[in-house]
Amino acid sequence: MSTRESELKPMDAEQLRECGHKTVDFIADYYKTIENFPVLSQVEPGYLHKLLPDSAPTHPESLQHVFDDIQDKILPGITHWQSPNYFAYYPSNSSIAGFMGEMLSAGLNIVGFSWIASPAATELETIILDWLGKMLKLPEDFLSVGQGGGVIQGTASEAVLVVLLAARDKFLRKVGKNSLGKLVVYASDQTHSALQKACQIGGIHPENCRLLRTDSSTNYALSPNVLTEAISRDIANGLIPFFLCGTVGTTSSTAVDPLIALGKIAKSYGIWFHVDAAYAGSACICPEYRQYIDGVEEADSFNLNAHKWFLTNFDCSALWIKDRNALIQALSTNPEFLKNKASQANLVVDYKDWQIPLGRRFRSLKLWMVLRLYGLENLQSYIRNHINLAKHFERLVTQDPRFEIVAPRVFSLVCFRLLPASKNEALANKLNHDLLNDVNSTGKAFMSHTVLSGKYILRLAVGAPLTEERHVNAAWSVLQEKASALLGTL
Amino acid sequence: MSTRESELKPMDAEQLRECGHKTVDFIADYYKTIENFPVLSQVEPGYLHKLLPDSAPTHPESLQHVFDDIQDKILPGITHWQSPNYFAYYPSNSSIAGFMGEMLSAGLNIVGFSWIASPAATELETIILDWLGKMLKLPEDFLSVGQGGGVIQGTASEAVLVVLLAARDKFLRKVGKNSLGKLVVYASDQTHSALQKACQIGGIHPENCRLLRTDSSTNYALSPNVLTEAISRDIANGLIPFFLCGTVGTTSSTAVDPLIALGKIAKSYGIWFHVDAAYAGSACICPEYRQYIDGVEEADSFNLNAHKWFLTNFDCSALWIKDRNALIQALSTNPEFLKNKASQANLVVDYKDWQIPLGRRFRSLKLWMVLRLYGLENLQSYIRNHINLAKHFERLVTQDPRFEIVAPRVFSLVCFRLLPASKNEALANKLNHDLLNDVNSTGKAFMSHTVLSGKYILRLAVGAPLTEERHVNAAWSVLQEKASALLGTL
């Protein structure tokens, strides 16, 4: 694609075809060889600075040169989230359907801020979030037929932020904007840090963010009693409870907050109730897991990351809301340069008013392709297969008396740790910290950690699209081998 | 790719290759025929609902069926931003290099929230924003060598939001968080609505957002005197000026705020000075246009949308900041499950703390590919060619006495209108409103409008990658033809 200055054709269709085919082959070859790479990148901080020039080239470089650099300089710095040996954090699924959707979205390259900017982008999003809402058996007031509806956000962080802002402004309209310092947010201490960040952004005072303590007695779920006590205390002190975030599948240990009880409390106090099911929500398309979101009927908003465990390439976070006007009142602007007949007549949805940024990509395309090219039954099997692999891993851990399971496995995450010879917790933490480091340093598997009630714990999350039983077994072998080495040196 | 439930292989490399090649051909064929589509979609609100089923399929559908639906049901609802006849809003460039970068990013599908999650994603972003910063001759304190640095945001809306939050929290740390209601923001009334939205989100009181009036006497640029007066008045009233947004290339008419003068005022009052060059910043890689950001030396932050006029597919908004710690202090969280050696030792950048969401795509890849596959000189020619086409269009308008140029053309946007027979402004507005509607309804060209000093004005922005002189001429012919028809019926 090297071009002389006088003939730059940045969008020539035949050049696009040629370069696109080469890129497809590069990516397909990557997936063919993905198991050859260390899962966790083993480079040192600053490695790339030494490999690249200090400034952009004056003249074009060849495509082959760029591909060579990606192979030689970029891939070593990649942590391979799509590797079948990736078990860290939560998965971030790629799929052929999702990848094709991304290609089409990048190919059309529209910016769908309002309906008129590409009606198909807005309308497909509304329709597909209704489809997904029905798959999850969400109550109808989350669908587009009434006052609610779905919207694709980039991430769960943005989802919780926009609903927090909607709730904040709804309350401030009632109590006056100078009462911002009195607004109180509730959630468990297991809630994703995105909530804390949303509070920071929205100006909620840090001392008014109640991250209520949980422990193993509730399997790290929020206790309704603890919540009620906190709310009562705050009201007695003249504060204004306004937002409750419940989680289905917490990041540390997949704890499930009791939505039914929490929903009743939120309703009785008139508090906005948001349900974060970023990871575990996908499992709820299976009838046997739908119970975990029972109570969502009482929620005001519900969120699931299709980019985690639902074969939709990053980013694609599905948010449903019952009162879309609350969102629009918090986030709308109406500049002259965007005015148009359809918007002014209120005939259409303008998703710019449902999100932080103005511009937006055509993300519903990939979710639509995932739903159509795989279908509900395949997607259910996909989820069940990962959960079965996690059960399998859990059994392996249970059979080795040197290890213990630390929190109940609910979905596809197993929380476990290596036990020290003595009951010294500080030693146990050091041991597991070192074990994780030793395992990840092999490059053969990548898992992550958390801390629960002061215990350092290893997390193995099954969910990468290529993971099979042999990969889980291999990860377990590495763990056993490194554990033996560590215990042997004690 | 139809698969039986038992054999779902969502990431089989050979299936990926086959499906990827088909998708490349679909996109290449789209570009071959892009001029056949009406630029502005001509569908009616709700069109897609009638064409799609009510729920997701239980079983997989064939790839051909999905492609047929994209062709028959989606493309009619697309407004073709990549069409050479697209002249609305501002451009949103696609390019072969940018498209390949998107493919690679979607293919690797990593989530680069922190360095460890894929070191290459973080390090390439730092390096490439240094490259681009040098191309723009930004002062060194915006580069990564000192206390500053660059980061890719999704959009200019997110860029202005994060710096507003950084500034807000920096001030509140000094004056106390209960003074939020006293903080005042300054900008011209031509500033993008993203600033107003950022203020809403950050809890800045609407009555403390000074959108200072501009008019044709300054070509719609912010007057330093008007700014100084407003600041003095606010200080006298016990308010706290904290944020000034200057624009280089406003959305309505490419007005350029006087950065040098504004920077001096901001400095003398200790106000955070942000420069929004979302559209026009790209032109500043040409020595002859660099003057428009003279004064950026005094700014605290600077933003340019590479996805607008810089051949980098949406989204990719480059933000530079002098005091990266201000950003990090406003936006960081440090949950246990993300802790790792490199981050804890402060050896690396974790871009999660420079932005709203936690997750982030590998966007630097596409910008790197654009810079390398085109090179500085090609990119400069690309910009100059569009500006020359806009000059050409401006000459055409000037030669027809029925039209007038309404604001000076600075870059590649021409603001013009049709004059009515009498000097009736209401009639003029109606006439131009109808003219725009008539032109866009032909599907032969798409342009947009704005209002300046009460005048309804047409905007023709040159900048789509495929636009040539013949397309500009064709747009002008449609305008003349529709103008004649309208004037003939008066």
From TrEMBL, chains A, B:
The keyword Lyase applies. Its cofactor is pyridoxal 5'-phosphate. InterPro entries: Aromatic_deC, PyrdxlP-dep_de-COase, PyrdxlP-dep_Trfase, PyrdxlP-dep_Trfase_major, PyrdxlP-dep_Trfase_small, Pyridoxal-P_BS. The modification N6-(pyridoxal phosphate)lysine is found at residue 308. GO terms for biological process: amino acid metabolic process; carboxylic acid metabolic process. Transmembrane segments: none annotated. GO terms for cellular component: cytoplasm. GO terms for molecular function: carboxy-lyase activity; pyridoxal phosphate binding. Keywords: Decarboxylase, Lyase, Pyridoxal phosphate. Pfam families: Pyridoxal_deC. Belongs to the group II decarboxylase family. This is Aromatic-L-amino-acid decarboxylase. It comes from Trema orientale (Charcoal tree).
